[in-house]
Amino acid sequence: MKVLIVESSPDLGRLWENHMRRQGMEVCLSTDQASAVKALNTRSFDVLILDLVLENGSALAVADLASYRYPDAQVIFVTNTSFFSDGSIFELCANARALLQSDTPPEDLTAMVEHYGRRA
To answer: What pTM did the predictor assign?
Structure first.
């Protein structure tokens, strides 16, 4: 399973990346929109984990590009805010499958990736 993590906090992104690699997943880590777009332009992904509030760029722009280039790619948004807690993210992003808090344990996030990645 191929996973793209787009997380502004490199330490948090590496934590998730390392956990998923131990589970046999192929993982690419980006910290901003530009590097995520570059990754999406060079290869496909089954699941994207997107920090909803990127420091540099827009997670929704990344999700839109992924939806256009890889319509079967599943998106899991993560956030440390209550923004979009009303569920409106699912109206804005057709390939959104979940909205989780950034402090979700890595094993739980990995289980979500495994679940939605099977659909891709």
So the answer is: 0.92
pLDDT tier for residue 36 given thresholds of 50, 70 and 90: very high
Residue with tokens 């390939």: 95
Q: Using CA atoms, how far apart are residues 93 and 106, in angstroms rounded to an integer?
A: 24
Mention every residue, 6+ apart, whose C-beta is less than 8 A from residue 22: none
Q: How far is CA 26 from CA 43, 76, 117, in A?
A: 12, 16, 12
Residue-range domains of the chain with CATH = 2-117 (3.40.50.2300)
* Euclidean distance between CA atoms 60 and 22, whole angstroms: 28
